[in-house]
Design goal:
Mean pLDDT: 86
Radius of gyration: 19 Å
Helix content: 25-40%
Strand content: 5-15%
Largest sheet: 5 strands, mixed
Number of strands: 8
Strand order of the largest sheet: 3-2-1-4-6
Distance between the termini: 17 Å
Oligomer: single chain
Length: 294
């Protein structure tokens, strides 16, 4: 019998490289109860969607319309909406999972499925333990005119951006003051109800967050705490996002082979960040432990 989508999990992948890390992630999600929606950055010219079909045997794969997403820019939020729309249009799914090309599952696939089925009405969203700081204020209350350019690569524009921010502060041109912002990691898992709720807020999000900086790190958090879904945020063991991410040792920390026992003991479903170039043994071991055996 064919499975209804409501019995399945939707994985929404945002990636910009189709390297061995990306293929590893696909192999690890390759189970019949998973549908995989891929947004591969349009700047990647070597990507061949048909190659994916060779790697994935049991899951269904869908290719979302490709856009160019830039770190720190609203384009990343737009890419998330492209994926969310594609998945919801094909749904409803049991849960929707936003996953990056640097994430891996850290439980067997059957256990991940069982975990989300056991928490059918829970939303899995990460919250920054530190409250909003002046640095974060700067991200949302003032306009960042180069927000779709990666300022890490353009130091001169970074300086100009700083000058423009200072000018806005002097002139007290502060906006979004009626919005209570909350921040955390952008990677989340949510129910069909919250996914549809997010889609109804798309226009508001794009309007309020245009020319903010790293808007992907607060749009979901800001919306959920002011929504009827606020009391549905997961409060079980591990992180509220069901993702093992270490913010204490890095921004975030790239897991090393020495962390293997910690990852194995984690109650979380997924972890990030992994880097197959720097830590190939760890990535191969995680795949060996938790890849589907179908």
């Amino acid at each position: 019998k064919t499975m209804e989508t409501s019995e399945k999990q939707a994985y929404m992948l945002i990636a910009h490289q189709c390297n061995e890390m990306f293929w590893t992630l696909l192999r690890m999600l390759d189970a019949p109860w998973n549908d995989i929606f891929i947004h591969m950055d349009s700047k990647n010219e070597n990507y061949q969607p048909e190659t994916v079909e060779r790697y994935v045997k049991y899951a269904k794969v869908f290719h979302a319309q490709r856009t160019s997403a830039v770190w720190g820019g609203i384009t990343l939020v737009k890419a998330e909406f492209v994926l969310l729309k594609a998945a919801v249009d094909h749904g409803p799914y049991q849960h929707y999972h936003l996953i990056s090309g640097a994430d891996l599952p850290i439980q067997p696939p059957e256990d991940i499925r069982a975990f989300f089925e056991a928490n059918p009405d829970r939303e899995f969203v990460h919250f920054d333990p530190h409250p909003f700081s002046p640095f974060n204020d700067e991200r949302v209350y003032y306009r960042h005119f180069f927000q779709n350019i990666d300022l890490r690569r353009h130091p001169v524009l970074g300086v100009i951006n700083g000058i423009l921010l200072s000018g806005q502060k002097l002139l007290r041109i502060k906006r979004n003051q009626d919005v209570h912002f909350t921040k955390g990691s952008q990677w989340f898992s949510c129910t069909d109800g919250f996914a549809r709720y997010l889609l109804t807020k798309e226009e508001w999000i794009l309007q309020v967050l245009d020319k903010t900086f790293c808007s992907d790190e607060f749009f979901v958090q800001t919306l959920i705490v002011q929504s009827p879904y606020q009391d549905k945020i997961y409060q079980g063991p591990g992180d509220t996002s069901a993702r093992a991410i270490d913010w204490d040792r890095g921004n975030p920390w790239v897991w090393k082979y020495a962390d293997l026992e910690q990852l194995k003991a984690s109650p979380c479903m997924f972890a990030r960040k992994f880097d197959i170039e720097k830590e190939p043994e760890l990535v191969h071991e995680i795949e060996r432990l938790y890849a589907p055996h179908i």
